[in-house]
Each structure stands twice: as structure tokens, then as C-alpha cells.
From TrEMBL:
Belongs to the UDP-glycosyltransferase family. It comes from Anopheles culicifacies. One of its GO terms (molecular function) is UDP-glycosyltransferase activity. InterPro entries: UDP-glycosyltransferase (IPR050271), UDP_glucos_trans (IPR002213). Pfam families: UDPGT (PF00201). This is UDP-glycosyltransferases domain-containing protein.
Length: 360
């Protein structure tokens, strides 16, 4: 019944002639690339006439009408925060190290959000929200806020389903042919890969319960008192739906319960014109442009010098022009055909007629 109510609510919310609803977004994770996926959903609801309140680290510079930001403070954005050292000499159990990195991020973001002015203002307002959109990534402590507000919630994931997400939406993990996000496998796994995949899925589900859920419960008890908020494992089962940043055309066909909706690509909106210097850089490249970026979190400048110089030596032999997302002002041993910028509009560059290749 709760899921049916939520489905009807979403259907009505997406209709421009529907009654306006009060929607709250809870996004405590300080990852900008994650929020780039969520923001168009939130802005789309506001543009459809609904009252949207957003708790996040990334307030909108030019919010549309009906869009209200409640900024979180006290944490640094994770942009350009991951060093290449994490990937050097990566052992076979390296994905377990990644799990505990996510755990620490989630615990810190949870504590910061629960004790923030933004969350306190939301709770004090006594507004009855019709729907809550909450990121489901590495902590479920925001489900405690949804419980306090007595509103149905939909989970949003900026990546494919994590091993600990399947149970809450009644979806079988099927590790025999559905690879875990952390493994880097395709559906065509051999026996040893299937075994490793099964071990990873079962281990991560258990670890998430032992560590992430336990940490969320502890922080919620500290914030609201003993017995006020149910165990987050119980709250997870109240997830009405999950909107997931994946699409079968790229990630392969897999069985999904009716509570899981693939919305990969929804964040792709109208293109913005390139600035004059960058546009000229692309237009005057007689042999095309190669674009290099390792995402918003990995700091390219931490690349070991010998590997950096080997890449630059190879790039210097090319006749193409190379545009590289590089966070520092200078790039040692930079060839004349390599251009660096601290930030680049990735989508616009990739869709330029003169872009002939990318390395990421």
C-alpha cells in the first residue's frame, strides 16, 4: 500500500497540471558528482510547480521558483580529494579497503548532517512533506529524519545498486551473473569470478549491517535519544522505490523489482555554450581533440611522476590536441599540444564534433 501510494504520488508530481506537493531532498554526502545526478530531478519537480526543499552541500546558484536550499556546512567537498596512492599496488582485497573508505565517509557525513542547522530547521518547521527524496549510498541515517517527519521516501542512487540495497526493494542480488559494482566484472564471469563475486556480495551486505547500520543507529540515538528512532534496518524496508543511475543499454539487462526504476541519463539536460577560449581551442585543432579526465574526485596531480611523464611523452607524439583536467596551475614536462584546466565541461566537450577520443 505504501509503495502504491508513492507511485501514484510520483505520477501526479510529474504532471504539470497536478496539485503542488511538498518535496524534501536529503543529500548529506559531499560528493559533487553525485549531486549532479540528483539536482535535475529536484529542479524538474520545482519547475513542474512543486515546493522543493533541498538539504545538501551544493546550493543552487540560480534556483528556479519553488526551489529552496538548506545548505549543509562543516565538510569539505570530496572533489579532487582521492589520491592515486589508493590505486597503487592494489591488492586482491582492495575493494574491501574501498568499502571502509565509504564507511568512514558515510559516518562523517551522517554526524555532520544530523547536527546541522539545516536539519534542525527542517524538524522545527513542522511542515508535513508529501514525499522525501534521500540519497542511498553509504549511510542510512537520513531515514531517521524521514521517520521523524512521518513521510514516505524514495531512495536515489547515483550509481548502480550496491550489494546492501537489494533487500530493501525486494530485489534478488543474483551474484552468479549480476556483477557487484566493486568488482569490475561483466555478466560473462567464469567460475572463479562468480565465486569472488558471491563472496563480495555476501561480505559487503554483512559488513554494511555490522558497521554502517550500527554507526547510523548510534548517531541517531545520540541525536534523538534512546528508543525514539527504530533500527535503520527496519527503516530500510520502508523504502517505497529507488531511482537508480543505470540503464540496461549500458549496464546490461538484469531482473529488477517494480520498486527499482532505472533513470540513467535523466541528468543530461540542455547544453551550455563553451567559453570563447575553450571553443577556439577545439575549433582550431586541425587533427581533432583528445579529452582526458579521471572524474571529479581523483586528483590527477597525485599521479606518480614516472607514470605522468610516460603519459606526457606518449601524448607529445600525437598530432591531436589534448585537453586534460589537471588541478594544479602547472604540469611538469608539458608538451606543446597538451592544454590543462582545473575544471572542464565534460559533456559539452565529448559532444563536440572535433573530439576524437577520450581517456578516463
Amino acid at each position: 500500500m505504501i509503495m502504491l501510494r508513492t507511485v501514484l504520488l510520483v505520477a501526479l508530481a510529474l504532471s504539470p497540471c497536478a496539485q503542488a506537493y511538498k518535496v524534501l531532498g536529503l543529500f548529506p554526502h559531499p560528493g559533487q558528482s553525485h549531486f549532479h545526478f540528483f539536482q535535475p530531478v529536484l529542479k524538474g519537480l520545482a519547475e513542474a510547480g512543486h515546493e522543493v526543499t533541498v538539504v545538501s552541500h551544493f546550493p543552487e546558484k540560480n534556483p528556479p521558483p519553488n526551489y529552496r536550499d538548506m545548505p549543509l556546512e562543516g565538510m569539505t567537498s570530496l572533489s579532487d580529494s582521492v589520491s592515486f596512492e589508493l590505486f597503487e599496488y592494489r591488492p586482491g582485497f582492495g575493494h574491501f579497503m574501498e568499502f571502509f573508505m565509504l564507511y568512514n565517509w558515510g559516518k562523517e557525513a551522517c554526524a555532520n548532517a544530523l547536527n546541522s542547522t539545516a536539519i534542525q530547521t527542517i524538524l522545527d518547521s513542522k511542515i508535513q512533506y508529501d514525499l522525501i527524496l534521500v540519497e542511498q549510498f553509504n549511510s542510512d541515517c537520513m531515514l531517521g529524519i524521514a521517520h521523524q517527519l512521518n513521510a514516505p521516501f524514495i531512495g536515489l542512487s547515483s550509481c548502480p545498486l550496491m550489494p546492501w540495497h537489494y533487500d530493501r526493494v525486494g530485489n534478488p542480488p543474483l551474484p552468479a551473473y549480476v556483477p557487484a559494482l566493486f568488482m569490475g566484472y561483466t555478466e560473462r564471469m567464469d567460475f572463479s569470478q562468480r565465486l569472488a563475486n558471491w563472496i563480495t556480495v555476501q561480505s559487503f551486505k554483512t559488513l554494511y549491517s555490522w558497521f554502517n547500520d550500527a554507526a547510523a543507529n548510534k548517531l541517531l540515538r545520540e541525536r534523538f535519544g534512546e528508543g525514539v528512532i527504530p533500527d535503520v534496518r527496519e527503516l530500510q524496508q520502508r523504502t517505497s522505490m529507488m531511482f537508480v543511475n543505470q540503464h540496461y543499454s549500458l549496464s546490461g539487462a538484469k531482473p529488477l523489482s517494480p520498486a527499482v526504476l532505472e533513470i540513467g541519463g535523466i541528468h543530461i539536460r540542455d547544453f551550455q555554450p563553451l567559453d570563447g577560449d575553450l571553443q577556439q581551442l577545439l575549433d582550431t585543432a586541425d587533427h581533432g581533440v583528445i579529452y582526458i579526465s579521471w572524474g571529479s574526485m581523483i586528483r590527477a596531480a597525485t599521479l606518480p611522476a614516472e607514470k605522468r611523464d610516460a603519459i606526457l611523452k606518449a601524448l607529445g607524439r600525437l598530432k591531436q590536441r589534448v585537453i586534460w583536467k589537471w588541478e594544479n596551475e602547472t604540469l611538469p614536462n608539458q608538451p606543446s599540444n597538451v592544454y590543462i584546466r582545473k575544471w572542464l565541461p565534460q559533456r559539452e566537450i565529448l559532444c563536440e564534433y572535433n573530439t576524437v577520443g577520450t581517456y578516463w
